[in-house]
Design brief:
Layout: E1 2-11, E2 14-24, E3 29-33, H1 40-47, E4 57-60, E5 63-64, H2 70-73, E6 78-81, H3 93-100, H4 108-118, H5 120-124, H6 135-147, E7 153-157, H7 165-180, E8 184-189, H8 192-198, E9 201-206, E10 209-214
Parallel strand pairs: 3-8, 3-9, 6-7, 7-8
Antiparallel strand pairs: 1-2, 1-4, 4-5, 9-10
């Protein structure tokens, strides 16, 4: 489904990703794990068109997306839940979800119903301003907003960051459920044990290089 081949990404003179290659097959959960600053978020941002590689190629569903702008990737079935959630803080829960379906307006009503079924807590907060939600609720909202585009591949960047142990369990359970219902997932996490427990395969990133891969 996704193939990254020999990408090299720079921030000015800093060489952030050094010849990174990885693959995600349909139906998998693939974990990308590593310490802070290893290049995990940079990898996701390069796939989703926010950053660009100086070399190599990225293909998604057999299409070359190496130089595709970010906004053109969402209708193709790629969704990215960024680190830090990035909810629209001044908008309500429902408005945030509606924004998630901007490429898919016919799905708004059914999509919101699906998200509320998956995240009942959001249903109770549907008219609440997103900035007043707890961290866990904002993470659920960010994931729900991404699901509104009906993605084929969902990329999650540190979904458990800053959450209580109970909420971490809940979020990982939801990721597993999403995968079982047909969504392929690329998961970036510092919580190695939790992410490895639900993943089919994993890659370990260390200072911009893949140093280990396997089941």
């Amino acid at each position: 489904m996704l193939k990254i081949n020999d990408i090299n990404v720079y921030y000015g003179k800093i060489h952030a990703l050094k010849g990174v290659s990885l693959e995600v097959h349909p139906g998998e959960i693939v974990a990308l794990i590593g310490a802070n600053g290893a290049g995990k978020s940079t990898t996701l941002q390069t796939v989703s068109g926010i950053l660009h590689s100086k070399t190599g190629s990225i293909t998604f569903l057999d299409k070359d997306i190496t130089h595709t702008e970010a906004y053109k990737l969402v209708p193709q079935g790629l969704a990215h839940v960024p680190e830090g959630r990035r909810c629209f803080l001044q908008m309500t829960v429902t408005e945030n979800l509606e924004m998630g379906a901007y490429t898919n307006p016919k799905y708004v009503k059914d999509g919101i119903a699906d998200v509320f079924a998956r995240f009942p807590r959001l249903k109770h907060r549907k008219n609440q301003i997103a900035g007043t939600l707890s961290g866990g609720e904002q993470q659920m909202l960010a994931m729900g907003r991404a699901l509104m585009s009906q993605p084929k591949l969902l990329m999650l960047d540190e979904p458990s960051m800053g959450l209580s142990p109970l909420l971490v369990e809940q979020i990982f359970g939801i990721i597993k459920e999403l995968n079982e219902s047909g969504t392929t997932i690329l998961l970036v996490e510092q919580n190695a044990s939790k992410s490895l427990a639900i993943s089919d395969r994993a890659y370990v990133l260390e200072t911009g290089r893949i140093v280990m891969t396997g089941t």
